[in-house]
Amino acid sequence: MRVGETLRLVIAASIAISAHVTCESPTAPVPVGYAGEWTGTTQHATSVRFSVSDANEVTSFTVTYNFSVTCSGTLTYTDLAVPIRKQEPPGPPPFDQPGFAFGRMSDDRVSATAINGVFSADRRSASGQFVLVGYSGCGPSVLGTWDARRR
Fold this sequence. Notes:
Elements: H1 3-23, E1 36-42, E2 47-52, E3 57-68, E4 71-77, E5 82-83, E6 99-105, E7 112-119, E8 125-133, E9 141-150
Antiparallel strand pairs: 1-2, 1-9, 2-3, 3-4, 3-5, 6-7, 7-8, 8-9
């Protein structure tokens, strides 16, 4: 094989490898906004999912929890309009990224729920916490964590 043919073969192979690596690169463009369906799991491997509108508002949130035999269930909140925004002043990482928070109290004012989330800088993942206060069988309060990715 001559040097010219070898050089062409090496260049062709380099281009093919570069194209493959570029197409498979995890550094794809950062998505604009947070809109979409997000799904993931809690620290107990139960499901969490939420929706974000084109206006960057959390419109629904569902989390299934399983802290113990007496403390398990599913919480679903629909018809939400919780804005995604940065904390002022920003907190330490990851709390320097945009996020959301909301809470609900039962009609009888016996139990309450607080849910928060923070998005990653690349807008592909989110993590957060949920607190249950006064839920029957759960003790005074329990704290759960969750992680999710945009579908």
